């Protein structure tokens, strides 16, 4: 049976979180995180993770489910999000998937969005696993450096699983996630997209970065550095990767903040391009000059009610 599902997408800082709360209250919903980095514990400020107070009693799912040193893939998210959607429906509630990671959201929505998780050569994987057990993770990592130095830069030497996967990909580049060309929806879903004029959005992004720094983002990144997680998957998030070099003296905090703002703006632009070309979205402008937030929410609610009935 196909289930009803609301999806809220859009660039960073556009207002997705606030809208999701209002829709959840209006339609008896529960919210599923659709952001690739909010799944990590201890990464709250830099990912703009919703606070318990901001939740207003609305249940949220797939937040703080893995440690920052762990690997969490899009196929992991696909599995977990679909389980949450089913569980929410069993409770008689409406699932609302919210986030800016388009690949993750598409992976949930379409039944034929599959991934090649199994190795093409199981014997070769076993060989690599034995090598790591006998010679250690550093020796295995050296093999990756010799095979694909570029891939090795983004992987911590102690993450044996990811190192093995990277060696496999270097040996067989076809080992990549795939989606069927013809997309068949798994759910009866409605995608709401939030947009904003560039100047206003960029100003909001710059202000958010300043607020994050005031809230203690530096201490959050320092905690990851103390755990030697600079090369982990989680540490590649914008707002974190720019601050690690401050601790090594590569540049100062002011330069890091400048880079976070710049990279966040560039990311927002990429998000909009992706959503416009990869998804069927009903767009709503969040420009402040047009209407108040309350009026915008009312308009979106009326649209959703008409489509979901």
TrEMBL record:
UniProt-annotated binding residues for ATP: 10-17
Pfam families according to UniProt: IPPT
Interaction with substrate tRNA, annotated site positions: 101, 125
Molecular function, one GO term: tRNA dimethylallyltransferase activity
Residues that coordinate or bind substrate: 12-17
Cofactor list: Mg(2+)
Record's catalysed reaction(s): adenosine(37) in tRNA + dimethylallyl diphosphate = N(6)-dimethylallyladenosine(37) in tRNA + diphosphate
InterPro entries hit by this protein: Dimethylallyltransferase (IPR039657), IPT (IPR018022), P-loop_NTPase (IPR027417)
Keywords assigned: ATP-binding, Magnesium, Nucleotide-binding, Transferase, tRNA processing
Matches recorded under Gene3D superfamilies: 1.10.20.140, P-loop containing nucleotide triphosphate hydrolases
Enzyme class (EC, first level): transferase
One of the GO BP terms on file: tRNA modification
E.C. number(s) listed in UniProt: 2.5.1.75
Domain of life where this protein originates: Bacteria
Sequence similarity: Belongs to the IPP transferase family.
Oligomeric form and interacting partners: Monomer.
HAMAP family in the record: IPP_trans
Function: Catalyzes the transfer of a dimethylallyl group onto the adenine at position 37 in tRNAs that read codons beginning with uridine, leading to the formation of N6-(dimethylallyl)adenosine (i(6)A).
Protein name as it appears in the record: tRNA dimethylallyltransferase
Organism in which the protein naturally occurs: Pullulanibacillus camelliae
Lineage: Bacteria, Bacillati, Bacillota, Bacilli, Bacillales
Gene: miaA
């Amino acid at each position: 049976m196909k289930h009803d599902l609301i999806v809220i997408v859009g660039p960073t800082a556009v207002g997705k979180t606030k809208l999701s709360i209002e829709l959840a209250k209006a339609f008896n919903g529960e919210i599923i995180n659709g952001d690739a980095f909010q799944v990590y514990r201890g990464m709250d400020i830099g990912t703009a993770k919703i606070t318990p107070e901001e939740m207003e009693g609305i249940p949220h799912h797939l937040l703080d489910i893995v440690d920052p040193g762990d690997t969490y893939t899009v196929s992991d998210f696909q599995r977990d999000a679909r389980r949450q959607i089913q569980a929410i429906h069993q409770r008689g509630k409406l699932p609302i998937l919210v986030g800016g990671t388009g690949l993750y959201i598409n992976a949930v929505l379409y039944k034929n969005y599959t991934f090649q998780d199994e190795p093409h050569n199981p014997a070769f994987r076993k060989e690599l696993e034995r090598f790591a057990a006998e010679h250690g993770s550093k020796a295995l990592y050296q093999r990756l450096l010799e095979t694909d130095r570029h891939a090795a830069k983004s992987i911590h030497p102690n993450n044996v699983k990811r190192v093995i996967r990277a060696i496999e990909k270097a040996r067989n580049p076809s080992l990549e996630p795939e989606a069927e060309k013809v997309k068949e929806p798994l759910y009866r879903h409605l995608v709401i997209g939030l947009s904003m004029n560039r100047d206003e959005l960029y100003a909001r992004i710059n202000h958010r970065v300043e607020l994050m720094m005031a809230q203690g983002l530096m201490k959050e990144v320092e905690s990851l550095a103390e755990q030697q997680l600079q090369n982990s998957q989680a540490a590649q998030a914008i707002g974190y990767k720019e601050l690690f070099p401050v601790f090594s003296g590569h540049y100062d905090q002011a330069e890091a903040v400048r880079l976070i703002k710049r990279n966040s703006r560039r990311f927002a632009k990429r998000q909009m391009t992706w959503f416009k070309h990869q998804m069927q979205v009903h767009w709503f402008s969040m420009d402040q000059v047009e209407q108040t937030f309350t009026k915008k929410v009312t308009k979106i609610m009326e649209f959703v009610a008409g489509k979901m009935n």
